[in-house]
Amino acid sequence: MWRTTKVKCKSDVPLKEIVDPAKRAAWISQQVDLAKKQYMDGINIDIEQEVNETSPEYYALTELVKETTDAFHREIPGSQVTFDVAWSPACIDKRCYNYTGIADACDFLFVMSYDEQSQIWTDCVAKANAPYLQTLVGYEEYITMGIDPKKLVMGVPWYGYDYVCLNLSEDHVCSLSKIPFRGAPCSDAAGRQVPYGAIMKQVNSSISGVLWDEVQKSPFYEYKDSLGQFHQVWFDDPHSISLKAAYVKNRGLRGIGMWNGNSLDYSREAAAEQQTEAMWQALTP
Q1: From the candidates 17, 48, 63, 273, which is the catalytic residue?
Q2: CB of 239 closer than 8 Å to CB of 219
Q3: DSSP H stretches of helix in 170-237
Q4: CA quadruple 226, 229, 230, 233: dihedral, nearest 10
Q5: Which segments of 174-266 are extended strands (E)?
Q6: Rounded mean pLDDT of 181-190?
Q7: Which of 26, 48, 151, 276 is close enough to 264 for a disulfide, judged by CB 3.0 to 4.6 Å?
Q8: Are 257 and 153 in contact (CB under 8 A)?
Q9: How many Cβ atoms are within 10 Å of 282's Cβ, its own excluded?
Q10: What positions does the domain GH18 occupy (predicted)?
């Protein structure tokens, strides 16, 4: 199986600065120069700051993307400018961006279909990082806005969340500490991110083994730490990712990617090699 890689610089910028056209132009010039010096294929813009729909930043952000795309295409023929967006355009984490304008202004959107519990508005319990139906709803919302599916790349998580349970019920409900985030009473900040490679090392010593949630279509497991606290770990595996990859193919999205490639175990151990290859294979239905 062939895998292609494009090397891009990944950039963020304080939104207060890009309202000024001169500062915007200076930032873009710096990024173009960096990409040229490093022989990069383009730039991925990852801005995850709060933006109000009526703010100057709302319009300036769209202009930044358009001007960046124009500059890169002009200065580095064949380059790509991409923009990271949340799993849904519904003002997730108060990121109320001009999604259609940004999509028109760049080569494609990389949809971060993970951290979908960054704002928990329902019961404060552990859930899947990227529930299947919730993930698909996000894409249908982008497409309903008028964004061409070919402008959307699905980002899937190669990591999970380890939650300490205040209480773990017999039917696997893990109650969480209430840690608010951007208006929501609870969030995945109650857990910690764990790479897939580490998850695979721990799951065999868990008290539950790998369990499967049929509603969220996600694996999880439970363990007890040295202090006697129960944990619940939610993650994605080849099974859950392959379901999403099938949607990518059937819906005609541009492609699929992951965050991030270093989350797998690339050692020469037989089990690790098998697990790693299965995760790569899951991206290509």
Answers
A1: 48
A2: yes
A3: 196-202
A4: -70
A5: 174-175, 191-195, 211-213, 218-224, 230-234, 255-259
A6: 96
A7: 276
A8: yes
A9: 22
A10: 1-285
pLDDT surpasses 90 at 64 = yes
Number of neighbours of residue 265 by Cβ within 10 angstroms: 19
Backbone phi and psi for residue 241, each to the nearest 5 degrees, phi listed first:
-70, -35
pLDDT in tens, 144-174: 999 999 999 999 999 999 999 999 999 999 9
Q: Residue 220 forms beta bridges with which residues?
A: 211, 234
C-alpha to C-alpha distance for 139 and 98, rounded to whole angstroms: 16
Averaged pLDDT, 260-284: 97
The string of pLDDT tens digits covering residues 202-213 is: 999 999 999 999
**pLDDT score at 6:** 54
Q: Name, in order, each residue with C-beta under 8 angstroms of 228's C-beta and a sequence gap of 6 or more.
A: none
Is the CB of residue 160 less than 8 Å from the CB of residue 263? no
pLDDT at 13: 81
The b/e string for 41-71 (b: 16+ C-beta within 10 A; e otherwise) is bbbbbebeeebeeeeebbebbbbbbbbbbeb
The verdict on whether 48 is a catalytic residue reads yes
User: Which residue do the tokens 């960054």 mark?
Assistant: 118
B/e letters for 163-175, b = 16+ CB within 10 Å, e = fewer, are bbbeebeeebebb
Distance of alpha carbon 284 from alpha carbon 213, whole angstroms: 23
What average pLDDT is seen over the chain? Answer: 95
Contact between residue 155 and residue 110 where contact means Cβ atoms under 8 Å apart: yes
